[in-house]
Amino acid sequence: MTVEDSGSSGTAADAPLPRLLCDTAELVALSDDAPGGALWKLAEPGRQLDANVVRLPAGGRVDTHTEPDLDVLLLVLDGAARLDSADGGHPLRAGVLTWLPHGSTRAVLAGPDGVTYLTVHSRRPGMRIQPPEAADRLRRSLDGG
Hints:
Number of strands: 7
Structural class: mainly beta
Radius of gyration: 21 Å
Largest sheet: 7 strands, antiparallel
Strand content: 35-45%
Number of helices: 2
Distance between the termini: 58 Å
Low-confidence stretches: 1-6
């Protein structure tokens, strides 16, 4: 069987390659002594996703908030937590994969041994500094001029 040319001008040598990024089991093992916060962040240039491995110590909390723009996947890697949402509290334990749709209100409360979890969502576009004339062009286009 042969592979037909798809018409792509790029060569296989130009194609991005899959990369091993981190060993989450190793992160979890180290996180017992780690303070709360991000243990790892996806930082590869040109990516379309953002991802983080986050550790909340025992009793740690991500306060109630609403994400207006992005769906988020949350995968518990170790420990336990409670996800509070408009329909009540949901227990989270290692292996539980949760979808947090955009517009949903939620909070995460770590269990007695803390929790380590992975989040993945679309990358937010970075803020760009524009020259002053860019604001003038935007105002003119909004004014119909």
